[in-house]
């Protein structure tokens, strides 16, 4: 299983979009550990959304889509709709 995820920086509110074959929780833990320079400078992170895919190619395409103009707008709508529901227990 492959996952496309949104992680929110608790430091500055930036939203990171990524894809992984790991569980979203494990990948967020790696980001919070500071696995690269961007993560070190912008962490800690909180997982706010994810989608699962059966093949890597679909996950990669979806990640790339969320980084395009229309994809950013859709990402923003997803985040706004999540915010309107409040925290999930």
Automatic annotation (TrEMBL):
PROSITE patterns: GIY_YIG. InterPro entries: GIY-YIG_endonuc (IPR000305), GIY-YIG_endonuc_sf (IPR035901). It comes from the Bacteria. Residues 1-78 form the GIY-YIG domain. This is GIY-YIG domain-containing protein.
């Amino acid at each position: 299983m492959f996952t496309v995820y949104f992680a929110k920086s608790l430091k500055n509110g930036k939203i990171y979009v990524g894809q992984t074959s790991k569980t979203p929780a494990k990948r967020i833990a790696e980001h919070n550990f500071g696995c690269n320079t961007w993560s070190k400078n912008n962490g800690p992170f909180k997982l706010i959304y994810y989608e699962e895919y059966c093949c890597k190619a679909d996950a990669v395409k979806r990640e790339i889509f969320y980084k395009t103009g229309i994809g950013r707008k859709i990402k923003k709508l997803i985040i706004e709709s999540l915010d309107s529901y409040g925290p999930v227990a």
